[in-house]
């Protein structure tokens, strides 16, 4: 009780003192922004315009920072600030990363303070500089809020292949990577509203690490680019050609080679969680042309009114995840992988189709799951894609790779689309209601109602 009172008194005093001494400050330079980023209790409004980072971090300053092992461009270490940055764009020459030579996974803009609000900032990467991994922006402090922050990410090597030649681990890659990701959240109570990451880089758009609690995304947007494997195979020079198009994972024929007929995203995932993160939620968010739309496989999550467009794999979910009124297509890859227990999914299947090879609509494994599939806007796909009950995702989630069978028990599947259903031999005690044909009936004690 005594500790609680001390903490309460400190919080009240800090809050009152912050209010008393808060200032409304107008700035018009990155030098001033960096100065007030380290202070607390202010409202900072920056004059609209494009600010070149090289005007602030000159080669001489970068050299000094490199010697001092100071790798962040600007660190927001202050607390209880409001940064009004509407129509402010920071132009980041990626050559700065090359000059600094930071260690792997170094962040460029870092928020370590607490209870800050950032409104309207745009960060745009230009140039061809790279470094061994890293993130444009990390939010590490607690209870920070980002509103309408936009990142244009570039500066990775090689760009143009996605994860065809590996994901970054040196032992598994056939072409060595230098990634550059967008926005990383590691701080508890982080809230993001209307934020965008437009990636032209090999790396994640939004991702969460280090097990933060109560992270919330609303009206956020992640976008990458896509490229066909046929176009990759047409190259006559470059890193893919130099390794004879050798991939890091095998295709359905057991060969480690780029296979024609598929579409690859050139970035990584739109929204990604690593490890268990308590109380993570996504509402009205969209992922377009990313590798995974929402890859939340080892994490409980709440996903509501979210959309995927043209992803390699749309939703990949784990234990205790809830999906409400979500939507996506299987234009370039599967719509859903369920890899866990006690999930509750309501998913609209968009009718978009292409000439690219796709081998399943969804796969389901685990226990006590409920999956409801509906045709979006009442329009069914014309190309049949099987719903695989009692199957794993393809190896590493790669569409070119083979599937395996796995246990699924007590699944309740309601398929209101016309897509066919395949029930594997490791399926048991499942209840399946389907408007589509059942093309495989294996397993034990399954109740199947074809409408």
What is the fold's blueprint, element by element?
Blueprint: H1 2-21, E1 23-27, H2 30-37, E2 42-46, E3 49-52, H3 53-56, H4 59-68, E4 74-76, E5 82-93, H5 95-100, E6 106-111, E7 117-126, E8 134-139, E9 145-147, E10 150-154, E11 181-185, E12 191-193, E13 196-200, E14 206-208, E15 215-218, E16 221-223, E17 226-228, H6 229-233, H7 239-242, E18 263-265, E19 271-273, E20 280-283, E21 286-288, E22 292-296, E23 301-304, E24 307-309, E25 313-317, E26 322-328, E27 336-339, E28 344-349, E29 362-367, E30 370-375, E31 387-389, E32 408-409, E33 412-415, E34 421-423, E35 427-428, E36 431-434, E37 438-441, E38 447-450
Parallel strand pairs: 1-2, 2-5, 3-5, 4-6, 5-7, 6-8, 7-9, 7-10, 8-11, 9-12, 10-13, 11-14, 12-15, 13-16, 14-19, 15-20, 16-21, 19-22, 20-23, 21-24, 22-25, 23-26, 25-27, 26-28, 27-29, 28-30, 29-31, 29-32, 30-33, 31-34, 32-35, 33-36, 34-37, 36-38
Antiparallel strand pairs: 17-18
Strand portion, in percent? 35-45%
Give the N-to-C terminal Cα separation.
Answer: 62 Å
Indicate the overall shape: globular
Helix content: 10-25%
List how many beta strands DSSP finds.
38
Largest sheet: 21 strands, parallel
Determine the number of helices (DSSP H or I, runs of at least 4 residues).
Answer: 7
Unreliably modeled segments: 1-14, 16-20
Oligomer: single chain
Structural class: mainly beta
Radius of gyration: 24 Å
Averaged pLDDT = 94
Keywords: Signal
Protein name: Right handed beta helix domain-containing protein
Signal peptide: 1-22
